[in-house]
Amino acid sequence: MRKILIVLALFAILLTAISCQRETTSNVSVDAIWEKMRETAAFSQPSEENLLDCEIAEKFGISLESIKDGKVFYDRNPINADKVIIIKANGDSSVEKIERALSSEKIRLVDALENDSNQQKKANNIITKTIGYYCLLIISGNASELEKIFDKAVR
Fold it and tell me: What's the pTM?
């Protein structure tokens, strides 16, 4: 009886450890993900910033040690607040730090856009998401479509 309980306890611990692991994702570059999203994003004046640049990463409150790959894609058109941030984290603890930084960016964007009647709908539909080591923030009129493309790209 005691041996059965020990085996059951070990089995439960093993199942817990397996279920706590990060979701397995494909090993795709941020540029490859963006390439799949670019047409749907339809930025009129596309631009990008590399999050592996220390100044850019700091602007978003992310340390370079947390980032394996990352870019900010945005529309330079001043009447358009569209932005897509895609980051591949270095590990589990990095994912948590990046998620906090993207949540802060989401709050900042909502605050900045709350008085802009043209952008309020976008501000209310900002998407932040993590799959495995890939973290995402989207503000766009096409946010749900871009999210679906991201999901397919990293799985």
Answer: 0.84
